[in-house]
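Work Package 3 (structural annotation) set out to generate three-dimensional models for the target panel prioritized at the project kickoff. During this period the team completed the workflow that converts sequence records into discrete structure tokens, so that structures can be stored uniformly alongside our sequence database. As a representative example, we reproduce one entry of 126 residues exactly as it appears in the project archive.
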Amino acid sequence: MEIVDMIWGYIAPVWNWLVAGLAVHGPLTAGGEINWMFLALQMGVIALVMALLMQQFGAILIFTVLGAIVHVVVDIVLPMVRADAGFALPPVTEMPYLQYIAFLAVGYFVAITVLSIIKGVLLPRR
């Protein structure tokens, strides 16, 4: 268990930094907490599409960036469709928003990697 504590000691500051941006700009519940279910559903659908479109594993960084961009676009367009809200540009110069995008990039990197490995096992090339 000591090794897990040591590894978590290195990961915890990075995790806290990423989640700080998610707490400001991510999907929130009515109580103001992070809505993990909505985030997982949105990221899961986008990551699944990206993994299915990816032909070679060498394109993982391109599809990670593309997944984060699609996620940001969905974040902007979804309130416009659901609540008839106006168009608003994201605050890309603020540090919490950059932390949010970094969280998305790490999440999409892991999710697309896992899903493309599963795709390679279940759907082998001919």
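Residues 71 and 121 are 27 Å apart (CA to CA).
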